Amino acid sequence: MKKLTGKQKARVITLTVIVLYLLYGTLAYAWEIRMQTPQIDYVDSMQVDGSEFAGIANLFVAGTNGLVSFLTMILSVGAMLLIALILLVPWRCIAIRKTSAIAVEEYKTAKYMWIVFCVCSLLGGFLIMRFTNLLYLLIMTGILAFFIWIFSVWPMERRVNEENN
Questions:
Q1: What angle (nearest 5°) sits at the alpha carbon of residue 60, between those of residues 57 and 62?
Q2: Vertex 107, ends 14 and 164: CA angle to 5°?
Q3: By Cβ atoms counted within 10 A, which residue in 28, 60, 133, 162 is the most buried?
Q4: Measured on CA atoms in the order 52, 53, 56, 59, is the torsion positive or negative?
Q5: What is the pLDDT of residues 118-155, one digit of tens each?
Q6: Nearest to 126 by CA among 34, 37, 24
Q7: For residues 88 and 25, is the Cβ–Cβ distance under 8 A?
Q8: CA 8 to CA 14: how far, in whole Å?
């Protein structure tokens, strides 16, 4: 890091802050999905005109709880997608311009940050969610990892390759 210029250090620091925030968001949503309790409680007994309707009522309760959980997962992925775009697109437009000089060390740091994000979000999410809702976690991490790669690591890689050729 000592060989980097001030702009290069600023790029690395701001990218680190963005990646850490996205990691925090991923783990926070994983925690919320795990801690989400059913919104509606099941019934033990439900008498309608002398007939027992607890089974039918519990079927509707299960469907409602499942729908609420599904919508929560979909909306959390959408929220993190929007947050990633809001943070990474301006960063890409401001930090990596055609006149920007990208150092190899800066590219390697961004690449290692991406790897650490992928590993920490998957392992942390698996542990937080106790190995349930794995598809949700893979989709969330995959989308964010894709955006981090597309908006930060890949442009740096292209620029370093252009400068070295």
A1: 110
A2: 140
A3: 133
A4: negative
A5: 999 999 999 999 998 899 999 999 999 999 999 999 99
A6: 34
A7: no
A8: 10
State the Cα–Cα distance between residues 109 and 25, nearest whole angstrom. 21
**CA separation for the pair 122, 131 (Å, rounded):** 10
Give residue 52's region: left, alpha or beta (phi > 0; psi -120 to 50). Answer: beta
Tokens for 102?
Answer: 């990208």
Please choose, from the candidates 82, 89, 80, the residue with its C-alpha nearest in 3D space to the C-alpha of residue 140.
80
**Cβ contacts of 104 within 8 Å, gap of 6 or more:** 160, 164
Torsion of the alpha carbons at 138, 142, 145 and 146, rounded to the nearest 10: 180
Taking each helix axis as running N to C, give the angle between helix 154-164 and helix 104-128, from 0 to 180 degrees, rounded to the nearest 10: 160
If you compute the radius of gyration of the chain from its CA atoms, what whole number of angstroms results?
Answer: 22
Q: In this predicted structure, what is the pLDDT of residue 37?
A: 66
Whether the predicted pLDDT of 45 surpasses 80: no
Strand runs labelled E in the chain: 47-48, 51-52
> Which pair of structure tokens corresponds to residue 69?
């959980």
